[in-house]
Design a protein that fits this description.
Length: about 110
């Protein structure tokens, strides 16, 4: 994603408004305390296409950093997880079946893999 998109997201969340009735573009909060912003259209004002969004989800991967403490010093395992498998991967650690603790998740496209 372009840096300007990340900057927009950060600025949106920095607004600090918590609304009970949440409209697109407003900072909202779930009952569990998670902050979110609803986006109805892309930067060009077009509504999102479900098929395109799902197809795009299969194009990218996540790098998931997992900290493992086995002795005095922890180490990190970096996992390359396909976009459509990220929830399955996280569930392994939420259920306590994974070895270690997820500490970071970054999204990237295959052509960026180094």
């Amino acid at each position: 994603m372009p840096d300007d998109f990340n900057e927009k997201v950060i600025n949106l969340f920095g607004a600090g408004k918590k609304n009970k009735i949440c409209n697109a573009g407003q900072v909202c909060e779930t009952p569990e305390g998670y902050t979110y912003v609803t986006i109805n259209t892309d930067d060009n004002g077009r509504h999102f296409d479900e098929g395109k969004l799902l197809k795009n989800a299969h194009r990218f991967y996540y790098v998931v950093k997992v900290m493992v403490k086995e002795s005095r010093h922890p180490y990190i395992n970096n996992f390359k997880v396909p976009g459509d498998k990220i929830l399955d991967f996280i569930k392994i650690y939420n259920d306590g079946k994974g070895h270690g603790q997820i500490i970071e998740i970054d999204k990237f496209y295959p052509e960026e893999w180094a």
